[in-house]
Specification:
By secondary structure, the protein is an alpha+beta fold. The protein has one domain: 2-Layer Sandwich (Alpha-Beta Plaits). The protein is 39% helix and 29% strand. It contains 3 helices and 4 strands, in the order E-H-E-E-H-H-E. It has a 4-stranded antiparallel sheet. The mean pLDDT is 96.
């Protein structure tokens, strides 16, 4: 069964807020979300082409686990905490299914 991913893209428009956002996401939000979701792995990225764009990606073992996480109470709590902490940061959420993995060798 292919892995599935939950991706959150956040736009931190104010350059003065990016370091604080980065620290909060690293110390608090990513660990809290990974634990609440019970994910296999989680990653964070800052865009090299648009410095305001932050992306977090969470890997789930299967679609059922992802659906439970994004539709559960933990998600509501995480969204509320994000909204309280970063009310001016806009974000979008998407889900993906791994179509192919290529390993060069």
């Amino acid at each position: 069964m292919p892995s599935v991913y939950f991706v959150v893209r956040a736009t931190v428009a104010d350059p003065a807020q990016r370091a604080a956002f980065d620290g909060w996401y690293s110390r608090e939000h990513l660990p809290d979300a990974a634990k609440a979701f019970g994910v296999k792995k989680a990653w964070r990225f800052w865009s090299l082409t648009d410095p305001a764009l932050h992306q977090a990606m969470y890997e789930f073992a299967d679609r059922a686990a992802l659906d439970r996480a994004v539709n559960g109470e933990a998600m509501k709590t995480l969204v509320a905490e994000f909204d309280r902490s970063w009310p001016k940061v806009t974000r979008s959420r998407e889900t993906f299914m791994l179509a192919e993995e290529f390993v060069a060798g």
